[in-house]
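Lab notebook, bench 4. Still working through the backlog of constructs that have no structural model yet. Next entry is a single chain of 403 residues. Request: give me the structure tokens for it.
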Amino acid sequence: RLRFAAPDVALCMIRVCSMGRRGMVQGRITIHTVAAACMAAAAAGAGGGSGGLGFVGNVGGLLLHAPRVALRRHGGLCRRPLAAGCRLGAKLGALGLAASDDLDEDIAEAREAGKLKVFELDSFTLLSGEKMKNVSVVYEVHGTINKEGTNVILQPTSFGASHKDQRYRIGRGPEYTLDTTDNAVVVMNLLGNGVSTSPSMVGSLSKWKYPTLHDNAVLMKRLIEEDLNVKGALRMVFGYSTGAMAALQFGCLYPKRVERIAAICGTAKTTPHSRVFLKSIRLSLCADPAWDAANETFTERPGAGLRAAGAIWAGNGLSADFFRQEEFLCEDEDGGVRSLDDFVEDTIEKFETMDAHDIIAQLFQWDTADISNNDKYKVGPVPLLEYLNHDSYVKGSNGTLLT
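Model written out:
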């Protein structure tokens, strides 16, 4: 674990070694290799899980669990059963990419049920000094916030995902990563993801102000204070991918407002390799004939650009070990064995459901992520680490291309 020097904030950072397309969902938090790494790294914690659960991590006394994954080897082929109710092929691609085909219907249903809420601001000043008008931050609440407001876990969404895609890990009982028995989990859609205020809502990037993850972290604080009336410290901020980066940013900006941080597959500052990867996705989108550079808009859906972006993601969003160990060869919903071509095509199909304007907005947030780039910490990334206690650092297996 990492701890901020003052105050005492527990921080668990996990870097993913290899991630199966199925494994991320049925592993609830990441995959079996991360669970194993964290079990070893957190041996001084509260011990392993019970029943079908594997111990993922002890984050300042708050346990995170993942169902144990029994791998069945068939001539070197890893085959993993799907978790009940998790149809990853229909909704999620590699690294949590979300299909948006039925998102509007889901939002309407969630609003009617009273779970989905909107935090609205007439004006919001960004770190850049630009002002965004009529900002809507959509969030979903799982569980009940106690009267003291001391049981709240905040989860910002990840790249390409919405609140809907986080539900598989949230629920009542220890079989869920985020247990709502005693916790209330608030999932906030980051700006630009197609649910909260996004360029797709106006169909152009020409008037988009390009908010950063820093700006989203500020909105996270305002949401819990102004809309949820939670004035004390959050029990935890949990995030995956860019959500993890937003969680780290929140912890640096507001250390007194959070007790624990669980940052899954995220970095405090985007690495040079990641920046090259992100630029390649953006250029592939903008190489499509539908891109009108002068007006910063796609005149029609950039089918070829989206397919190219998906293919780039398929080859770079996962570790070399993922391909070397042929983890893409997993059972599908019908019991068949998937091929490498199936894996690539599924990833491409997820990109084809996404809005290209929103992808570019989210790429910008990821590309510019840096927890030290603000008025509070006008220092480089190395001096900033002096604020952390390295003696309690826990790191999972290294190896992803993006971290």
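Notes after review: Residues 67 and 109 are 29 Å apart (CA to CA). The longest strand covers residues 131-142. Flag for follow-up if needed.
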